[in-house]
Every structure is written in structure tokens, then in C-alpha cells.
Amino acid sequence: MTSWVDVINYVRLRYEVLEETDDWLRFRLDTEGERTQQVSVHHLSDLGGAAWVEISSPVGRADDVDLRRFLELAGGSQVGGAAVVDGLALLKHVVPLEDLSVREEFERPLALLVGRADAIEHELTSRDHF
After folding, report:
1. How far is it, in rounded angstroms, from Cα 87 to Cα 56?
2. What is the pLDDT of residues 74-93, one digit of tens each?
3. CA quadruple 45, 92, 129, 114: dihedral sign
4. Which candidate, 129, 60, 54, places its Cα nearest to that of 92?
């Protein structure tokens, strides 16, 4: 059984952690070329008390991107969905924590989501802000 501590330790060993609380981590991954991408991982509980891990990565400030185009691009993603949270356009993906294989069910969606978020950020903003 995977725990939130397992996820935290996995991230700490592999990535540059920028911020951390008891239920949340923000870190940076290298992507193609000289680009990087920030990602947040949140520990969540559903109404039944089951634990979940939410992976999210920003593509830009919602006011600065074409949100219709963002939704179109996000629709082609293998994992995750589009959201606007606190003024940021994000790609988000949620996985159950209880039976999580950190390598298979966390690392793979993380890599797919971050790569896609970075590509969308580059297309929509031509910047590497996040």
C-alpha cells in the first residue's frame, strides 16, 4: 500500500522541490531543450475518506492565454483535463493513492502531463514562465 509519505519521498529524491506543506508539493522538472515545467502534487480525500493524489501543471495565466485553444489542446492529452484555478490555466490528473504504484501510476502520468503542459505553454505563450 502506497502512502503520501512514499509519494513525497519519491519526489524529493528525483526533483527540485520549490515549496512543500503537509498535503502539497510544488517542484520543477526539466523538459525539452532548456525548458522546465513546474508541477504540484496534492494529497486529497474524497467524501468516503479515500486518499487521492492530484498532479497539476500550469500552462499560463488564464487571462493571458486563449482558453478555447487551451481546451482544444488539452482535449488531445492522454492524461489529465483542463482547469482554471486561482487564475492559472492548468492540466490536472487525479489517481487513487491506496493502490498506487509510484513508478507506474504516478511517474508515467506525471511525465505525460508535464510534457503536454510544457508543450501547450510553449504554443500558447511562447514563454517558459512555469
Report:
1. 14
2. 998 888 899 999 999 999 99
3. positive
4. 54
Q: Tell me which of 107 and 69 has the higher pLDDT.
A: 69
Check the CA dihedral 54-85-112-13 and report its sign.
negative
For 1-52, what is each residue's pLDDT tens digit?
788 999 999 999 999 899 999 999 999 998 888 899 999 999 998 888 889 9
Residue with cell 513508478: 103
Instruction: Please state the domain extents for the chain.
Output: 4-125
4-125 under CATH 3.40.50.150, yes or no: no
Q: Is the pLDDT of residue 127 over 90?
A: no
- CB contact burial 41-76 (16+ within 10 A = b; e otherwise): bbbeeeeeeebebebbbbbbebeebeeeebeebbee
Cα–Cα distances in angstroms (integers) from residue 4 to residues 94, 106, 114, in the given order: 14, 12, 20
